[in-house]
Each structure stands twice: as structure tokens, then as C-alpha cells.
């Protein structure tokens, strides 16, 4: 399960481990999607669509959405951690300490690689020996407890515009693929690309397959999924709040900056990407997003992307 989106951002091209993580995530996402196709929801009623994008009936196009602070306020893994703490997986001081550390890292823009490695190993130790099915079941409960009310209505409307156009919509996140899959299913999306934790006979080993799906690894996951699905990336869209996802956004023909951080906002404006900020209700810097994107835009503070940590003893 252990996939921590707060790990050190990559400032270089994808490594072999990034490629492995991306390919593993794509394979897991496709398997889950195929299993759920038989239970696919009925087609939604026709709604007015933007004439240019998304293109109705374009089966070579799909949409890829980052999760934390793009689809949902805050970090999915932190909310999941709250649920695990409630269920006595670890102690209060562990969650509080790491929440403070991650909030500081986000504000300061500094991450210590050694600390990130320690945090990743510690989080993996939490789930080692637990069954995948157990964590999936807990994830369903935690979604209702902490996540359902934190979905950005505007971003959800964007995803639904793609679905209404007959396109597949995938979450792409450094959160564990199991958590991401629960969220995608609850939102009626096609599936999720997330970090893949190793399991044997349905039990977590405490290791990852490759590395967390972060930065370049996200781009590799999207590339691998697009190849497997026969998609044309120039006709696809991607949405994110973070400059760490510029590799993924740069892959597609329709990149969107949603609730962007300072670096992504600057980058998006320079390249004339479309922007939308649901934190303040400000209009996009460049128009042209589907009209449904304006539905339910809400004001709110910038949520810290904080995550779960447990120190080894």
C-alpha cells in the first residue's frame, strides 16, 4: 500500500525505477478497470458540451487527473492515515509529528531525502503483514468518513465532462493504488494509477514495486497506459495542481493547471495552458475549459499536502 506522494520531487528524467513504477501502476490500473467494466454505470443523459473539447466520441482520448489538491482538498494519504489512527494502527504523536513536518516541508519547499526515505520505510512497516483486502475494506470506510466531503465540485465536473463525452478518466497519484481505486470507483471514474506495493498471496511484504508514483514516474505510468489502451496522447488531457507533475502535463495535448502552486502557475501561464483555481473562485487565466468546470466552484484555503508517517522504534 505504501505509496507516499510527498517523497522528494525528481528534478531529472525518469530512472529505470520510475519506468518500473509507472509500468506496474498502469498494469494494476488496467486490471482493475477491466474487472469493473461489467459493472460500468449506465450512460448519463446528454448534456451541452463545449464544441472544441472534450471531443464527443473520441475513443483515442482520455483524461488523467492528479488527486491531492486537484480532485480532493488535502492529501488522500493523510486522510487515510487519520482513519488508520482511528483504528489503532499507530499512535497520535506519530500522526501529529509527521503532519507538522509535512506542512513545514510544503511551506518551505524543502525536503530531506534521508528523512523521506525513513518516512517511506516507516509507512511501509505499518501495512506489512496486513492483507490487501483488509486495507481495501478500510479504505471504503475512510472515504466516507474523511474524503467524500473534500472533493472539489469544479474538478469533478471536469471529469464528468470527459465521461459524458465517452472518454475514460483515470486518477494518477502517488497514493497507494488501493486507496486511489476506491476513490475512483466512488467518483464513477474509469480507474486509478497509483503506487504499487508488493504483495504475496494477498499480503503486503513491506516493499514497493519500483518507486512511488511521483514526478517522472507519473508520466511513465500515463505513457504505459496510453500505449496499452491505444490512446493518442496529443488528444488526451491531464490535470494537476503541482509543478512536480509538469512531466505528466507535458505529455498530453490538453494540459490543465488546477489550483496550481506558484511554480506551476508561472509555467502554465508561460505556455498558455488553461488554469482554474477553485480555492478562491478566480476565473481561469485562459478561457476554454468546459462550462461544467464552473459548477460548484467553492472558496477555501489552500490545503496542505501532508501524509502519513510512523517512526520506527
How does this structure look, described?
- The protein is an alpha/beta fold.
- The chain is built from ten helices and eight strands.
- It has helices at residues 16-36, 76-86, 92-108, 113-127, 132-147, 153-164, 177-186, 216-229, 246-249, 262-271, and strands spanning 62-66, 168-176, 191-195, 197-200, 203-208, 237-240, 254-258, 274-276.
- Strands 3-2-1-6-7-8 form a six-stranded parallel β-sheet, with helices on both faces. It has a two-stranded antiparallel ribbon with strand order 4-5.
Describe the SSE topology:
Blueprint: H1 16-36, E1 62-66, H2 76-86, H3 92-108, H4 113-127, H5 132-147, H6 153-164, E2 168-176, H7 177-186, E3 191-195, E4 197-200, E5 203-208, H8 216-229, E6 237-240, H9 246-249, E7 254-258, H10 262-271, E8 274-276
Parallel strand pairs: 1-2, 1-6, 2-3, 6-7, 7-8
Antiparallel strand pairs: 4-5
Helix pairs in contact: 1-8, 2-5, 5-7
Mean pLDDT: 77
Instruction: Report the C-alpha radius of gyration, rounded.
Output: 18 Å
Please estimate the helix content: 40-55%
Distance between the termini: 21 Å
Order of helices and strands: HEHHHHHEHEEEHEHEHE
* Shape call: globular
SS summary, helix count = 10
What does the largest sheet look like?
A: 6 strands, parallel
Q: Which strand order do you get reading across the main beta sheet?
A: 3-2-1-6-7-8
Q: Find the structural class using helix and strand composition.
A: alpha/beta
Amino acid at each position: 500500500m505504501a505509496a507516499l506522494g510527498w517523497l522528494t520531487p525528481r528534478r531529472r528524467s525518469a530512472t529505470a525505477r520510475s519506468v518500473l513504477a509507472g509500468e506496474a501502476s498502469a498494469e494494476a490500473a488496467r486490471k482493475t478497470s477491466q474487472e469493473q467494466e461489467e459493472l460500468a454505470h449506465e450512460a448519463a443523459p446528454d448534456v451541452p458540451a463545449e464544441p472544441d473539447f472534450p471531443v464527443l466520441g473520441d475513443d483515442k482520448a482520455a483524461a488523467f487527473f492528479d488527486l491531492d489538491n486537484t480532485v480532493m482538498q488535502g492529501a488522500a494519504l493523510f486522510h487515510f492515515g487519520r482513519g488508520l489512527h482511528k483504528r489503532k494502527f499507530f499512535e497520535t504523536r506519530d500522526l501529529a509529528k509527521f503532519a507538522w513536518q509535512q506542512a513545514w516541508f510544503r511551506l518551505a519547499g524543502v525536503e530531506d531525502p534521508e528523512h523521506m526515505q525513513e518516512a517511506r520505510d516507516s509507512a511501509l512497516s505499518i501495512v506489512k503483514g496486513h492483507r490487501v483486502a483488509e486495507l481495501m475494506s478500510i479504505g471504503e470506510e475512510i472515504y466516507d468518513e474523511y474524503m467524500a466531503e473534500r472533493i472539489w465540485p469544479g474538478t469533478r465536473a471536469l471529469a464528468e465532462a470527459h465521461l459524458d463525452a465517452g472518454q475514460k478518466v483515470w486518477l494518477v497519484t502517488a497514493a497507494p493504488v488501493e486507496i486511489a481505486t476506491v476513490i475512483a470507483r466512488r467518483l464513477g471514474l474509469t480507474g486509478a494509477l497509483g503506487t504499487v506495493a508488493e504483495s504475496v498471496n494477498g499480503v503486503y511484504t513491506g516493499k514497493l514495486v519500483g518507486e512511488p508514483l511521483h514526478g517522472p514516474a507519473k508520466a511513465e505510468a500515463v505513457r504505459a497506459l496510453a500505449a496499452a489502451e491505444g490512446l493518442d496522447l496529443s488528444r488526451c488531457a491531464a490535470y494537476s495542481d503541482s509543478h512536480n507533475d509538469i512531466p505528466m502535463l507535458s505529455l498530453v495535448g490538453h494540459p490543465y493547471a488546477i489550483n496550481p502552486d506558484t511554480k506551476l502557475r508561472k509555467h502554465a501561464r508561460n505556455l498558455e495552458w488553461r488554469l482554474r483555481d477553485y480555492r478562491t473562485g478566480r476565473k481561469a487565466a485562459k478561457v476554454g475549459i468546459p462550462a461544467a468546470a464552473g459548477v460548484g466552484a467553492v472558496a477555501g484555503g489552500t490545503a496542505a499536502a501532508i501524509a502519513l508517517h510512523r517512526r520506527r522504534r
